[in-house]
Amino acid sequence: MVAGGAVAVTMAGLPAVGQESPPSTTIIMAKMATLFDRGVGATIKIRATCNSGDQGQVGVTLSERSGRKITQGSGYQTFNCTGGIETVTVTVVVGNGGPYGGSAAPFVVGTAYGQSYMEDCSPNYFCNQTGESNHNVKLERAKKTTKK
Asked: Residue 31 belongs to a domain with what CATH number?
């Protein structure tokens, strides 16, 4: 059990302590995303690892049924690989790309299906899609902060 209610995450594919080989690329998408601007989009965290010196690119598509409509949005983010676990925040905007072109309806509090992928790009810009993480994602409103 981890103190403070935190969740321990194991990154499958990371080398054991003292192992010489470079880490394999791994991606884990969070199970919760935070809505912003009344559902115009959501932010979601991705944990990823790739070879030190490379550039990582992660992309996320969220699809949610709201009544008789399907709301969809996509976003991506690049980051520098250190060989360790990186936490990357991806902003997903409604109607922004995606395999179905998105829609004009906002995201609402509920459950969406999340699809994420990662590309590992060498310093010579040779990129390979090296991982994906797909599962349901709980969409929540941002927590309100209290003023003192």
From this structure: 2.60.40.3870
